[in-house]
């Protein structure tokens, strides 16, 4: 038994000349929420589907719960829960019927009432799927992934298209799954989602990992702080590694001259600044 739930080394995948994943390596520790963060087309879904055993890699080695997903076993499948980027549900089945149907595939399913509660769909138990809102459907997708009581969950953009309230509710669900000891691979293009949920993040850009670390580590290597103010109606922006000294000089000079630094602001780099500096196209 290794301590890592997932190990990926030098993974590569192309589609007819499109290099979707270009030799990425990372590991996910048991019990952590790992965020794969990147813009559309970065290679997130390709990576996740290889780990799920739904696509074959061209090169590299992959181990998921100690198994090569190219040779899945039934027992392995039962330990994995998948929420695909767009799930397929039966429009005329109710929420409860869905969960019962999928529970039937597992030797030891999690009780469907618990699943309903985890995903916050108790009140919708007898509603047909076609009457659910987009956010409720997404929660049912998650419920379907949870009925098998998996150890490892793959969530591919679980909150894309959610309004802010639904997103916060989904984050709560993901946090409660983490506290149940689940290992979670979450893909997202929302920086805030990665920052709030993930223990560690890998930033994916055009099929390559351009940074890995905790959100705090990533902001620690961030570009410099920015100081901005207005002078004679003109906005001045300064980048500095030493904001204390620069502020002292600026404000000292202003006070001596009896001037004011209008609209003075100091920006500490956020994960968003780091993400944008890593993923912005330069060409
Ligand atoms: N089945 C496919 N056939 C051809 N190209 C694909 C296929 N799936 C993904 N791609 C391409 O691979 C790249 C990565 O896609 P994807 O893994 O879906 O990224 P993400 O999930 O980060 O948006 C994109 O350029 C996409 O157009
Ligand atoms: Mg995707």
Sequence-ordered SSE layout with sheet pairings:
Elements (H helix, E strand, L loop, with lengths): L3 E12 L2 E12 L3 E5 L6 H8 L7 E6 L9 H5 L1 E4 L11 H9 L8 H7 L15 H13 L5 E5 L7 H16 L3 E6 L2 H7 L2 E6 L2 E6 L1 H6 L4 E7 L2 E7 L2 H14 L5 E6 L3 H9 L4
Parallel strand pairs: 3-7, 3-8, 5-6, 6-7
Antiparallel strand pairs: 1-2, 1-4, 8-9, 10-11, 10-12
Bound molecules: adenosine-5'-diphosphate and magnesium ion.
Adenosine-5'-diphosphate (ADP) binds next to strand 2 and helix 1.
What would you say this structure looks like, in words?
- The protein has 283 residues and is an alpha/beta fold.
- The chain has two domains: 4-217, Rossmann fold (3-Layer(aba) Sandwich); 225-279.
- The protein is 33% helix and 29% strand.
- The chain has helices at residues 44-51, 74-78, 95-103, 112-118, 134-146, 164-179, 191-197, 215-220, 243-256, 271-279; strands spanning 4-15, 18-29, 33-37, 59-64, 80-83, 152-156, 183-188, 200-205, 208-213, 225-231, 234-240, 262-267.
- A six-stranded mixed beta sheet has the order 5-6-7-3-8-9, with helices on both faces. Strands 2-1-4 form a three-stranded antiparallel beta sheet, with helices on one face.
- The longest helix is centred in the middle third of the chain and has 16 residues, at 164-179.
- It is globular and about 80 Å long.
- It starts with a strand and ends with a helix.
- The mean pLDDT is 90.
- The structure holds adenosine-5'-diphosphate and magnesium ion (MG).
- Adenosine-5'-diphosphate (ADP) binds at residues 15, 18, 20, 38, 40-46.
């Amino acid at each position: 038994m290794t301590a890592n739930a997932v190990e990926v080394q030098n993974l590569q995948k192309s589609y007819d000349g499109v290099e979707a994943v270009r030799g990425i390596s990372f590991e996910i520790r048991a019990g952590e929420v790992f965020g794969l963060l990147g813009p559309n087309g970065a290679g997130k879904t390709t990576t996740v589907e290889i780990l799920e055993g739904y696509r074959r890699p061209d090169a590299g080695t992959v181990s998921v719960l100690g198994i090569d997903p190219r040779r899945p076993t039934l027992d392995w499948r039962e330990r994995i829960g998948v929420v695909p980027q767009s799930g397929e549900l039966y429009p005329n089945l109710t929420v409860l019927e869905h969960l019962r149907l999928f529970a039937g595939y597992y030797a030891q399913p999690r009780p469907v009432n618990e699943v309903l509660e985890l995903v916050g769909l108790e009140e919708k138990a007898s509603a047909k799927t076609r009457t659910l809102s987009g956010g409720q459907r997404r929660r049912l997708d998650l419920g379907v992934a949870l009925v098998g009581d998996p150890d490892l969950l793959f969530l591919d953009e679980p909150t894309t298209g959610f309004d802010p309230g639904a997103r916060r509710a989904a984050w709560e669900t993901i946090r409660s799954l983490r506290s149940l000891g689940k290992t979670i691979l979450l893909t997202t293009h929302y920086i805030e989602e990665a920052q709030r949920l993930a223990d560690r993040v890998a930033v994916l850009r055009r099929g390559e990992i351009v940074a890995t670390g905790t959100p705090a580590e990533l902001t620690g290597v961030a570009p410099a702080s920015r100081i901005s103010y207005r002078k004679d109606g003109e906005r001045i922006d300064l980048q500095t590694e030493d904001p204390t000294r620069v502020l002292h000089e600026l404000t000292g000079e202003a006070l001596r001259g009896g001037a004011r630094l209008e609209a003075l602001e100091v920006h500490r780099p956020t994960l968003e600044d780091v993400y944008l500096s890593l993923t912005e196209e330069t060409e």
